Amino acid sequence: MFDAIRRPFGYEPVLTKEDLKKSPDKKNERAKNWKSTLLRIWKLVDEQRTLLIIVLALVFISSAMALLGPFLIGYIIDTYIVPGAFEGMGLIIGWLIVVYVLHSVSLYLQNYWMVGIAQQVIYQMRAGLFGHLQRLPVSFFDKRQHGELMSRVTNDIENVSSTLNTSFIQVFSSILTLVGTAVVMVMLSPMLTILTFIIIPLMYVSVRWITKRTGRLYKEQQKAVGDLNGMIEETISGQKIVKAFSQEDRVMDDFLEKSERLRRTGFWAWTYAGFIPKVMNFLNNGSFALVAGVGGLLALNGSVTIGVIVIFTEYSRQFTRPLNDLANQFNTVLSAIAGAERVFAIMDEAEEADDTKRNADKRLDGKVEFDKVSFKYEGAEEEWTIRDLSFTVETGQTAAFVGATGAGKTTVMQLLARFYDVNEGEIRIDGTPIGAMPRETLRKQIAFVLQDPFLFEATVSDNIRYGKLDASDEEVVEAAKQANAHEFISKLPEGYDTVLSGDGSMISQGQKQLLSIARALIADPVILLLDEATSSIDTVTELKIQEALERLMEGRTSFVIAHRLNTVRKADSVYVMELGKLVEAGSQDELLNKGGLYATMLTDAKL
Amino acid sequence: MKTVFSYTKPYSLLIGIALFLMLLEVVLELLQPLVIASIIDDGIVAGDQDTIIRLGLVLMGLSLVAFVSGVANSYFASHVSHSFSFDVRQEVYKRVQGFSLAMFNKFPASGLITRLTSDVQLIQQVLYMSLRIMLRAPLLVIGSMIMAFVVNAQLAIYLIIVFPILLAFLYVMVRKGVVYFSFVQQRLDKVNRLVQENLQAVRLIKAYLRGKYEANRFSEVAGALKTDTVKAFRIMEIILPILLFGMNVSLLAVIWFGAFDIRSGDAQIGELVAIVNYAMRMTGAFSMFSFIIMAFARAKASSDRIEEILLANDGDEVVQGKTVPIEEGTVSFDKVSFTYPGTSRPVLQNISFKLAPREKLAIMGATGSGKTSLLQLIPRFYEATEGSVSVHGRDIKEWDLQELRKTIGLVPQQSMLFTGSISDNLSWGNEQAELPELQGAAEKAQIDETVQRFPKGYETRVGQKGVNLSGGQKQRLSIARALVRKPSILILDDSTSALDVKTESSLWAELDKEQATTLLVTQKVRTAMRADRILLLEDGVASAYGTHEELLKSSSLYREIALSQQAEEVGEYV
């Protein structure tokens, strides 16, 4: 039994004494962070100022009514009940009913509107964060786990949501009640007022002691949550591999370790935070005892009445109650602030460099030049992925890229679409550097068929239409036909209206490819980027697709990475890459005659 | 809710202690108005100073004891709720690990993830609150009522009149709340799914300039979430004002009738004050109710969703069975047909073949012809609907699932790596493998050289799904991972598609040396020719089976494929 009770003490301490000592500089930083976080939330809340003012007015009314109730009861006791004269008591009771009605109505309405305000703020945070994610550069996503980002968009914002719903009104009404009770109390008995308010500094000191610990613990907890979620996301979406390799135990161990860390940090965070309402309650009860005892003594010499004691005991509860509620939710509030901080941290990430809107609709011709382009991925230390790359692809030509995997072929495409910015040199389309071109203009000219075809959890036709949102049904079918997808789509249970499940498990990998090709076809681009798009399509289908692609490539500049020599053969020019550098370029025949790397590659392949 | 909360059982003692402490705290608090009544009646009205001081100190003492039990309660509540959620999370995760792949089609990944994260968190929070404040509210209400009766039953009657009405009202609202909050939860699911999709398809969305479109789509679902949340909360917000009003009115009744009782001598002022005090405490406790209801409604929705997993059946993958092979390395399909669970169209029909140890089978066929489905039957990801699949001379249903899979090296079509170092990822194949072994496998997979070039070599971290590697690098790592376990059966599902010709042929040369029965899906006749036999699939039916030469003669489709690829290659070499 004692083991069970003592168990948490066996947890490795999350905060050491050194941690707490370290606090001064960090504390300031945190306070500053909190201040700016709260300020940003406030800015969002403030956007609905009219409603907010109404809510605040209602809070004012309900707080006033909450004060008036006990006051009138005290008055009834002193004026009517103690002397035993009941004339006029009915009228006061009638007024009390009015007070109670007003109290309830204003309470309801303030919450009614506050929920609206709070949810609007949450909506804006959500949509803002999501919109911002859309504008972040691809490199941002390379660095982060999906699960961890997910937890920000979902958990963190949820925390803010539940806090805003309730805490905002509570803070405001506690302040009002505090001030109101203070005024009435001073008027009734300054001596008892001092006794009641003695607890406030005590509250402050003890809450400070606690929050100093919880603040950091909550951050730890949130981090543990993020880590765990990331791990869960990854292993669940990669479940097939976990199973294939019978790694359930290993994954489970990893899971338990992360889960245990969350339990440990969470336990201490919640335990400390749990002290707050208890402390408040204790101080509250203490002052209650003081008021009753000292008030009783004062009543003996007649300086206070019984009614006043009744009012005081009720008031002392009333102004601490909201504070108490707040303290009860203290953990939510803390994690909400931590959550908001993490959300804002993403919103502060630099967006893809600013795009001017000019020329957004201009259709380019599609002449592509790489001029001494060098590039390395962020974080890659000395390794250049692309080194000093120069070439020109004329309008309407097809350029095939060959080379060992990792030679940088995919990167060339990603640079052309400006997923990443080059470190040195310049990429030009029709003579204009793409860096000086709005991304919108640039990407409008480009259609991509990516290595891993991704489909959305939507209907087949919506997935195709992704390439051109305003495409008619006929256009969708036409594109599907061209991509050779029409046949299998027609066999699906609901044809073009079949909803594909999230992971697209209903259709085969090759069929996904076909759909992604249809999606590219409908986009009608100037520049076509095909990244190993034909690799998992069978030969028979591929022949038909080749046909369609050839039709599509007509008049368009095309960059193709394909391992089918057939594709390479039809290209106007072939670029052989090795370790990020261009080693050979020219037409198929030229390269063969030259007898360089390309020729060797072919001979090797001959078996 | 029952199943989920049955996980609190191991902690019943601790829960008992926590509840007892809370009860103690509440009782002590409830004694306060009684003491106050004494102060007024025996102290002030009787003019006895000593009694006032003595009772004042008693009040102080009571609060101190209440404080200590409160703090202890907080410790236990936190301990229990975190341990509970730890257990539930573990159990759910274990269940999910045990799911067959068919279950994954039923429960999409995003739903499983929310269950394991926010749902568990929510019920943890509710348990914590129940151990601290939730029971406190009803206890305070009931306790105050009892105390009021003890003080003066005649006056307390007026408090109890409104009670049944308020309770009935509460009941109705709780039921409503549960419904509304489950709507909200569904909306939240949708939002989460959209976010996940977007994170996965970043490049695609950017390439098609659909950032704004996605943002609009998101605004729509987030807007629906907002509307429903607001609706749910607005309904819940009715509770508190009505409860308060009911209590306040009965309080007035107490005062009105109390006044007459005092005049007639049936009651004393102190008693009236005490009852008023109790009534106000009840009102205060009621203000917690709507909060509690909301929490419970949400917990109900969450625990229902968790229970879906805990109670899900079929899923059980953990199958005990035979662990020793009869004839290591054989694979045979005997009249196997297969239909995906929940669908009606068979994807494989009447497939039969037999592979001796170290034989190689190439599977060819159009997309959607059932190649991947066939391979998935071997590690028993799915069960054949008809016929039988035997591995190592045993029907796979007799096999211990883990042992069976340990003998298989699978390289899926889409290579997926996990967050961690490259060596972590490779050791998935065999946890005991030392670095030289990992390196050996990497060498065979033609990736060692590339890894060595990374500044941190085998300790290089690969990110989410291995984003900072190219497709071909991922494929080769995933082949190396399979080779590390020295499998007696190797399954390659078109896993060399992102490799260039040169790398691919060195890779095949290495694979030829492996002591494994190999099943490979390929599009290339050149690759298929390396196999001992070729199985050609057409719409789930084996349209041809035999050696390259045999197929050239017997299958017109195969001939067509071979010719088209030959033409292609001949064209190159001229």
UniProtKB/TrEMBL annotation, chain A:
The chain crosses the membrane at residues 50-77, 89-109, 168-188, 194-211, 289-312. Residues 368-604 form the ABC transporter domain. Residues 53-335 form the ABC transmembrane type-1 domain. Its main location: membrane. Keywords: ATP-binding, Cell membrane, Membrane, Nucleotide-binding, Transmembrane, Transmembrane helix, Transport. One of its GO terms (molecular function) is ATP binding. SMART domains: AAA. It is found in: Cell membrane. It comes from the Bacteria. One of its GO terms (cellular component) is plasma membrane. The keyword Membrane applies. It is a multi-pass membrane protein. Pfam families: ABC_membrane, ABC_tran. This is ABC transporter ATP-binding protein. It comes from Planococcus maritimus. The lineage of its organism: Bacteria, Bacillati, Bacillota, Bacilli, Bacillales.
Automatic annotation (TrEMBL), chain B:
CDD domains: ABC_6TM_Tm287_like. One of its GO terms (molecular function) is ATP hydrolysis activity. Gene3D superfamilies: ABC transporter type 1, transmembrane domain, P-loop containing nucleotide triphosphate hydrolases. Residues 331-564 form the ABC transporter domain. Keywords: ATP-binding, Cell membrane, Membrane, Nucleotide-binding, Transmembrane, Transmembrane helix, Transport. Its main location: membrane. GO terms for cellular component: plasma membrane. It is a multi-pass membrane protein. It comes from the Bacteria. InterPro entries: AAA+_ATPase, ABC1_TM_dom, ABC1_TM_sf, ABC_transporter-like_ATP-bd, ABC_transporter-like_CS, P-loop_NTPase, Type_1_exporter. It is found in: Cell membrane. Residues 17-298 form the ABC transmembrane type-1 domain. The chain crosses the membrane at residues 12-40, 52-76, 133-150, 156-174, 238-258, 278-297. This is ABC transporter ATP-binding protein. It comes from Planococcus maritimus.
